[in-house]
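[step 3/7] fold_predict: job queued, chain A
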Amino acid sequence: MTAQAVRLDNFFDTLKRPGSPNNWLVAPVGFAITPDAVAPVFNVPMCDLIDTFKGVALRSKDVAVVEESAHAVHVIATTPLLRFKDDVWVRFIPMGESASTLALYSASRVGYWDLGTNRRRLKDWIGRVQNALAPYGQ
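[step 4/7] structure written:
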């Protein structure tokens, strides 16, 4: 495993959230960091959740993968109007053979307040993943 993959896989282990309201965290119940919203559990194996999530995120306008590993991905999302770049980190978490969840953290690179952009982005992506996985009982 490369040093870059290790850093990506351990991102949430070292995350220190700023006091500013320009970031948003979604994570499962019992996660090491208290989230702003609880992540759903999906009734699919982790590999299917990864494929679905990446399909949703990468179909979004102005989103590009920076790095990825077997269990995580880091993307840059550029806001439409002012072209600000936000970092989004995702860790995929197995919950047995046929269920999985994820932790997502979206943060603005600049500014104190993001006008809710990071929250809306993560809620949108989770909703789109749930819709895509609806045939599997989501």
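[step 5/7] annotate
The CA atoms of residues 51 and 129 lie 10 Å apart.
The beta strands are 23-27, 37-38, 63-68, 72-78, 85-94, 100-108.
exit 0
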